[in-house]
Amino acid sequence: MRKFISMDFFQNLGKAFMLPVALLSALGMLLGIGSALSTPQLLELLPWLKNPLIVFLARYMSTIGAFGFQNLPTLFAIAIPIALVKTEKGVAGFAGFVGFYIMHSAANFMLIDLNLLAASQDLVSHGQTMIFGIQSIDLGVLGGIISGIIVAKLHQRFYNIQLPDALSFFSGARFVPIITTVVMSLVGLVLPLTWPWVAGLINSAGHSLVSTGIFAPFFFGMGERLLLPFGLHHILVALIRFTPAGGEMLVNGHMVYGALNIFYAQLADPLTQNFNGQATQFLSQGKMPTFLFGLPGAALAIYHCAKPENRPQIKGVLISGVIACVIAGITEPLEFLFLFTAPYLYLIHAIYTGLGFMLVAMLHVTIGNTDGNLIDLLVFGILQGNKTKWYLILPVGLVWFSLYYFTFKLVILKFNLHTPGRQESDANATESNKIILSKNDRAQAILAALGGAENILSLDNCITRLRIVVKDMSLIDEAKIKVTGSLGIIKLDAANLQIVYGVQVHLIKAEVEKLL
Asked: Please, how many CA atoms are within 13 Å of residue 312, restricted to the half-sphere of its CB?
């Protein structure tokens, strides 16, 4: 039971991270474009960019784009309760903000009471910062994550509480912000005494990773791919992007923690000459050899290894997967084509991804952001000027395309792996999988394959997958699920199931929810 709760919790927590991260990615684009339009190299190449209107627009985009990383802890504190709770989500978000503010107010009270409040010029050296005008402990994004998790747990415990008649006005959802205020004030009181120890452990973990030198990006890149099938990669990514485990740096007088936060802080600072390679080694640049070149090479190998009569059936799937990978940075539609039928290929893919991270870092490329797609290469590489060494991605990418293509082709043919298009029955199987069901028919087929509505405890989705908690896993009919267009099925444990459908999964979830 404990395993079930833990797996379900971490999956949902990873999904909760996606709400602020998606906003951060979009705002990062604005920040990147605004910063790029102000770079001396681009201004020298295109003098018309000095037009006052363009300068105004560039400053405007930079200002709006900077909102994300400047307020990221608050965004996490609000988004996590909303994502984790099942009912009264609006109340959960409201309580998330209340809890975060109260926690820092109480921490400020305790710092004053213990005479630990640092002078304004010494905030960084004392691990303190300003939050909504309150001088408090600098928890970084972890403060928002911790606050959000606690508030979510309080909401789940108290949202339907029934108080005595005299206090009935405060019953139910209204009680959640009240109990949040009490609990988070107590959390804030102990922070000045306990946080230095916690911060020390996190810094030790970050230093341990960095101490591996050139292997640090390799371990990160490979680990992130290995965790992806279980939906737990968001946890690792968030730790590196937003906490001291991903590094720390003083930018424009402010201490910034986490690889992505450091990159965005430098992007927003007009005095930045070069981006910090210790931060960008964990960001977009490491994904680019694999996402832009490697996986398309793997797709071509799968196509050439398929039986000639089956190639027309798999061509559309491979092309759409390559487009999603290169343009959007969404790799699952390609990865899940060989994850289940040829898991050894996925292990090779994870190792090659890690090597891509390591090689690009060794070449001192400095391209940040999150997705590793063509847009990131343009906005955060090319438009930022040659200081990012974006041009080195191209020769590395050509090597990675060849590496993936010949490795995948060799392994598939040598071991006769059943990648798409190679089974004898592929023609018939593909045709059956291409049956176009109406929305209602597909939803009914999925529901029946999951053992009926009574077997489903919860239904949710991430970017490409349905995430389902079931009562009895033995009732799952995998053959019926495949006919609905599934790219793969992952049974995480005795209760947690994931079905990969691709980027249209939110529509499928809505169809099933209507029946539920």
From this structure: 4
Q: Assign 3-class secondary structure to 315-330.
A: HHHHHHHHHHHHHHCC
Burial of 329 (0-12, 13-18, 19+ CB in 10 A): buried
Q: Are 182 and 175 in contact (CB under 8 A)?
A: no
Q: Tens of pLDDT along 121-153?
A: 777 767 788 888 888 988 877 888 889 999 999
- C-alpha distances in angstroms, 69 versus 24, 25, 158, 261? 7, 10, 32, 6
Q: Which two tokens stand for residue 222?
A: 């490979």
**Kind of pairing between the strands at 465-470 and 488-491:** unpaired
pLDDT score recorded for residue 176: 92
Annotated active-site residue 462? The verdict is yes
DSSP assignment of 450-496: TT-GGGEEEEEE-SSEEEEEES-GGG--HHHHHHTT-SEEEE-SSSE
- Give the residues across from 460 on adjacent strands: 467
Point out the catalytic residue in the list 462, 469, 476, 512: 462
- Sign of the alpha-carbon dihedral angle for 263, 204, 185, 82: positive
DSSP-based three-state secondary structure for 424: coil
Q: Which two tokens stand for residue 75?
A: 């965004």
- Residue 260's closest CA among 250, 274, 276, 1? 276
Cβ burial of 40 (10 Å; 0-12, 13-18, 19+) is exposed
Separation CA 143–CA 257 (nearest Å) = 12
Q: Per-residue pLDDT for 5 more than 60?
A: no
pLDDT at 277 over 80: yes
Domains contained in the chain, CATH given: 2-212 (no CATH), 213-426 (no CATH), 435-515 (3.30.1360.60)
Contact 103, 76 (CB under 8 A): no
d(CA 512, CA 495): 19
What are the pLDDT digits (tens) for 160-210? 888 888 888 888 888 999 999 999 999 999 998 888 887 777 777 667 777
Q: Tens digit of pLDDT for each residue in 213-263?
A: 789 999 999 989 988 877 667 778 888 888 887 888 888 777 888 898 899
Q: What is the mean pLDDT of residues 503-508?
A: 76
| CB 37, CB 54: distance < 8 Å | yes
Contact 241, 366 (CB under 8 A): no
Alpha-carbon span 33 to 380, nearest angstrom: 8
Query: DSSP letters of 154-199?
Result: HHHHHTT----GGGGGG-GGGHHHHHHHHHHHHHHHHHHHHHHHHH
